[in-house]
Amino acid sequence: MMDARPAARNTRQKRAIRDVFERAERPLSTDEIFEEAHGTIRSLGIATVYRSIRALLDEGWLAAVEVPGRTPLYERAGKQHHHHFVCTACTRVYELDGCSSEVRGDLPRGFRATGHDVTIYGECAPCRSSGRSPHENG
Questions:
Q1: Best exposed site among 4, 10, 51, 99 by fewest CB in 10 Å?
Q2: pLDDT of 24-77, one tens digit each?
Q3: How many CA atoms lie within 13 A of 30 on its CB side?
Q4: Rounded to whole angstroms, how far apart are CA atoms 8 and 51?
Q5: How far is CA 98 from CA 30, 78, 102, 132, in A?
């Protein structure tokens, strides 16, 4: 049986965006993706970035990272379960390797946990060494 979906287009713009994620060591905002990819393709527009992100999400190549109070960030899909660290000085979000601690709690009788999500807040090493105070723009 043939797949009715059209093949995903791998445009020059989408390749540039994929390259951004290949180099990234942390989840990125749409603006960060645009800035990095725009350095490669000067004619790239923000609307194309949004369309490409949507396509890469649909293809399962990207995953959205939800941080409370923020617009979604994006990272490569297929990673093992892990948590995130939010720097309160520069607002960058970093990946933490694996699940650094077992999350436990007493659930009410009859409840069953099916997962968890942990976000840790603090100051990243670059902000600490530069003396940047929390909530200064990075």
A1: 4
A2: 999 999 999 999 999 989 999 999 999 999 999 999 999 999 998 899 999 999
A3: 17
A4: 12
A5: 25, 13, 11, 28
Structure token pair of residue 32:
């960060």
- With H, G, I as helix, E, B as strand and everything else as coil, classify residue 56: helix
The arrangement of secondary structure in 80-138, i.e. its CATH architecture, is: 2-Layer Sandwich (3.30)
Distance separating alpha carbons of residues 97 and 104, to the nearest angstrom: 19
Closest CA to 22 of 11, 33, 31: 33
State the Cα–Cα distance between residues 59 and 57, nearest whole angstrom.
5
pLDDT tens for residues 91-128? 999 998 877 556 666 788 898 888 788 889 999 999 99
Instruction: List the CATH code of the domain at 9-79.
Output: 1.10.10.10
Task: Tell me the average pLDDT across 66-90.
Answer: 92
